[in-house]
Protein 1
Amino acid sequence: MMQPGAEFEPRLIAFLCNWCSYAGADLAGISRFQYPPNIRVIRVPCSGRVDPLFILKSLQHGADGVLVSGCHPGDCHYLTGNYYARRKFIVLKRLLDYVGLEENRVQFSWVSAAEGEKFSRVVADAVEKIKALGPAKRLVKTFSLPPELIQAAHM
Amino acid sequence: MELENQIEHELRERAQQLLAENVVDLIIGYGRGTLPNRVTPVFIRKPQDANMLVWNNHCQLNLVSYLQRMQSSSKIGIVVKGCDARSLVGLIKEKQISRDRLHIIGIVCDGILDTRATGEPPIPYASCQHCEVNVPPLYDILIGSPDEIKPKKPSELDAELAAFEALSPAERWKALEQEFSRCIRCYACRNACPLCYCEECFVDQTQPKWISEGTHPSDIMIYHLVRALHSAGRCGECGACERACPMGIKLRLLTQKVSRDVAELFQDKPGIDLERPPALHTFSTDDDNSTFL
Ligand code: SF4
Ligand code: SF4
Ligand code: SF4
Ligand code: FES
C-alpha cells in the first residue's frame, strides 16, 4: 500500500536470459554498479523462452512494468533464440502501443554478460520511465470490493 | 445470380466426376441451409449426392476448419474461396494436413454478403471489401472466371483502422475495453478460425492457469491480445472469427492490425506462398532492432 505523500516506487518484473543478461546483472552487482531496487528478476533460459503471456500476466497481477532482456543478436547461447524473440516482440510491442497500453510499460533490451554497467543503466532508465507513467492501471485485475472491506484488509 | 448458377452447375458436375472416378473419397462443400440466405456444410461421399452442393454469395463459412477433424487417410475434396485457400496453405505449411490428401476445388469469389448489415442493397463483409485473393492462391481445379470480378471500391477497413489509430492511447484503450466488454467468452471466434487448431488452447489450460473464467475485462483483453498474437504471420484474413461472434464484436480491430504489421515488418502475406515459412517461424539477421534498448 502506498503511503500518502511517498514517492511512487514501481515494481518491475525483469525476465533475464540466463546466459547474458542475468550474468550482466550479476556483474553489475559484483562491480557495485548502482541500480534502483525496483526490479524482481525472473531468470529464463533464453529471451526466446519469454511468452507474451508472461508479460501480460505480470501486468495483470500488479507489475507496473516489465523488462525483457537477452543476449545481443548473434550471441544467443542457442544461436537463434533471440532472433525469433525479436520478431515476436516487435509485433507484441506494436500491438500493445496500438491498444493503448502505455508505451514503455513493457521494454526490451540486449545486455551481454560483460555489460554490467549497461545493465544498471537499462534498469535505471526503465524504472525512470515507469515512474513517469505512474502505477499501472490498464490490464490490472482489480475487483471492486466495498471500501470497508479493503480498509479491514489493511488493518 | 447468372454467374453464380453457372459456378454452381460446374461445381456439381466436377464434384460428381471426382467422386465417380474415385479421385476423392469425400467432398466438403456448401449445401442449402434451413433458413433463407444460409448455407450449411455438407459432406458428400456418393456421386449422386453432388447436386446437394450450392454456391452463392452467402457461402460465408470457411470449410477448412472442418479438415482438422478429418484425420483419416481418405482423400478429401474441399471447396474453397480465396481466403479459405489462404488458411489451407497455412495448415499445409504447418504440417497439419498433407497436400497429397487434398483435392482443392477453388472458386473465384467476388465477395460474401454481410448477413448482419441491414441496409439496401446488401454489402459484402469488411474482409471481402479489401480482398486481394478473389482467385484462390492454391487449387487443383478452378471454377469461375477471374474476368468476372468487379473492380473493388476502396475498403472501409482502412478508414476504420486509421480512425482508431488517430485516437489517443487512453481513448484507444477505452474504446477497445468497451468493444470487448460485450464478449461472453464463448470462444466461437477461436473455434471458427481454421488456424486455431491447438488441442488445448491457452485459455483452457489449468497448469498454469493463464486466465480465469468469467468476463473480467482484464481476462477478456488478454484472451483477445494473445489470440491476435497467435494469429500473427498466419491469419489469412478470412474474417471467419468475426462472423462467428454472436455479439458482433469487431475482432478485425486486432487481427487486421497484426496482419498489417506483419506485412510491413516482414514483407509477408500469410497463406499465399507454400514454400515460404510463416513470418514468425523464421527470422532475418537484418530485422528491425528498434524495439530493443
Ligand atoms: S484469425 Fe480470424 S480472420 Fe484470421 S484466419 Fe483466423 S478466422 Fe480467419
Ligand atoms: S488462441 Fe492460441 S492457443 Fe488458443 S487455439 Fe488459437 S492459437 Fe491455439
Ligand atoms: S466469438 Fe465474440 S463473444 Fe465469443 S469469445 Fe469471441 S469475441 Fe467473445
Ligand atoms: S540465450 Fe540469451 S537470448 Fe538466447
Note: Helices of chain A lie at 21-30, 52-60, 81-99, 116-133, 147-153.
Protein 2
Amino acid sequence: MRALVATLFALFAALAVWSFAVAPAHGWAMPENVATLGTSVDELFGKIQWIVGAFFVLTVGGLAWIVWRSAQGGGGARSALASHTKLEVLWTVVPGAILVWLALVQIAPWEAMKFSSSIPRSADGKPKPPLCEVWASQFDWRALYPGADGRCGTGDDLHSPYELVVPVNEPVVLALHSRDVIHSFFVPSFRLKQDILPGRETLVWFECTKPGTYDLLCAELCGWGHYKMAGSVRALPRAEYEQFLERKTRELSSNGMEDTK
Amino acid sequence: MGLQMTRAPHRPGLLCCLALALTGCGFDPGPGAMKLSLNPASEKALADAPKERAALEVLLERLFGTRAGPRYELIDAWKEDGTDPKHPDRMLEGGARAEFSPEQWSAIVAANRERLAYEISHAPNADSSAALADTYPSLAESAELFRTQCLHCHGVEGGGDGPTGATISPKPRDFRKGIFKFTAVKDKARPRREDLEELLERGVDGTAMPSFLRLSLPEREGLVDYVRLLAIRGEVESLLVAGFQDDEEIDDAAAAEALEIVWGRWQKAREKVIAFDGVVPPDSPAMRARGRELFLDPKRGNCVSCHGAEGKGDGALAFKTDAQGRKTPAYRDDWGFEIMPRDFTSGVFRGGSRPIDIYRRVYAGINGTPMPGIGETKGPDGELLLSHEDLWALVHYVRSLAERAH
Ligand SMILES: [Cu+2]
C-alpha cells in the first residue's frame, strides 16, 4: 500500500513536469508575446518556473522517497520532537534568499511597466498623451478616440465598441476608465494587466511588435456577465491605423445615403 | 485567436460521460428535443383545438425544419426571382455555401469589401473570397452557434425566454414578433440584413446584449440568417393563429400565404432606409441652441414630456403615481415590460452614438417602444412639423447632453 502511495507521489511529480514541458507545443502556455515589455515578464516567469519546478521535484521526490523507504521497513521510529537544526536553517535561509533575490530582480521590469516616470515621452520631452480612452463597464469595452478637438468626452469622439485599435511598433499610452465597478484590463499577448478603478484615470503603456488581433479580457470578477467581457486589440501598421481613424471620422458626418445602395 | 470564446470544438466530452456515469442518470434528448416549440401564446389560443395545434406544428416544421435541421421551404415566387447573392438565405434549405457560383461569391466579397478589408489584408491565404466561401456556415451550423452563444438569453425559439434572460433588464429580444429596435429603416419595417450584422458587431451598449465581433464575419452572417429564420417562423406562426381565431383553416395554403406575407415584410426593408440626401449640417453652438428649443417646445419636438427638461429621462409622462403615491414607470414596451425614456446624460446610446444613428431614432422612433418618430410628422397646417435642419439640430443637442462636463 505504501509503495503504491509512494509511486503515485512520484508519478504526480513526473506528470506535472511533463505537462509543463509539453505545454508550449499544445497551446496550453501563454500566447506568443508581441510586446516589448513582455520579454522581461516572460524571462521573470521562466526563472520563477524553473525555481518552483526544481523545488517541486525536490519536495515531492523527497516525500516519495521517504514513503517508499518506510514501506520497505527502513527509517525506523522517530520522536515527534526530533529535529535537525542545520537542515532547518538551510531550508529556511535558502528559499528566503531566493525570495529576496526575486523581489530585487522584478523591480526593474515593474518600474519600466508601471511607474508613471516610465511613460514614454514624445519628441518634446513631455509624457506621450494617451492615444485614446478605454472604458470598461458591466460588461463591455469601448475605446474612445479624441476627434478634431483633441479631447475625449465630446461630440466628435470616435467610438470603437469592443475593439481597441492601435498602431504597431510605437509606444501607445492608454487612459483606462470604468463606468461602474472595478475591472481589469488584460491583454495576455502583451503580458499586460492593469486594474481599473471607477472615478479614476489609470495610465498604461505598451508597444506592440506584430500586427494582428489579440484578446482583450477583463481580469477582475466584476459581476454576473464577467465571462462575456471580452473584446479585442487590433494592432495595425501606422498607415492602416490612420485609415481606421479616417473611416471613423467619415462615419460621423454620414448622411446614411451609402446604406440605400 | 488565442483564447477563444467561440467555436471551441463542441465535444460533450469525457467529463460529461463521466458525470453521467457517476450520477447514473442518463440524458436522452429523445426525438422531440430537437423540435422548435410553439409560442406559449399559440398554445393558449389553440388549447381547445388539438387538431389545429397539431397541424400548426407539422406546418411550421415543414417550412422551417427543426433545431438540428433548420431550413427554408422554397416557395414558387422565390424560384422565379432567381438567386440573390446578398441574401443567401433566399436559397435552398441548409444554407448557401454549396449553392454559390464563384461569380456570386466574388459579388458578395465585393459588396463587403470595406468591412472585409481588414480580414482580406490579414487572411492567412490570399484568396479571401475562397476563404469566405469555405467558411460560410450552413443554417444547421449557425443554429448550433446560436445554441452556444445566444440561446441562454434569447431562448430556443428566439422567444427572449432563455434562462439568463429571466434576470436581466431590458429583456433579451423576443424575435418572434419580428420587431427590432435599432434599425436604419422607417415605418416599422423589418430590419435589413446589414442592421442585424452591425448589431452583432457592436452589441447594444448599456444592455446585456454583447458584441460578437470576435466571431468571424461568415459566422456573424450565418447568425443573421438564423435570427431571421426564427423571426419569420414566429411571425408566420402568429399569422396562422390569428387566422384560426378568424375562423380560417390552418392548412398548406394558409401557411404558404402567411410565409409570402411575412417574407414580403422583410423584403420591404430596402425601400425604407432612412437617409438624408445632402450634407449633414455640422454641430455648432447655434445648432445646439436650436435643438434645445425644439426639445423643450411642447408644440414642436416635445421631447421634454418624456425625456425631461435636462434630458435625464424623467419627463412628466415617464411616470405614473400609484395609490400609495409611489412613482412607477408609466410605459410598457410591446413585449409587455416596463420601460423608461433614455437618460441622455448617461452618455449611453443603445442604438449607436453616431449622428446618423440618433437621426434615425428621432426620425422613425424606436420600434416596440413609446419613443415616437417625428421625421414625417405633419403639423396642424399639413406641413412637416420639423425641417431637416430642425431634425439635425435635435440630433446635435441630444448628443451634446451626453458630453462629459469639462
Ligand atoms: Cu469586468
Note: Residues 2-71+89-114 of chain A form one domain.
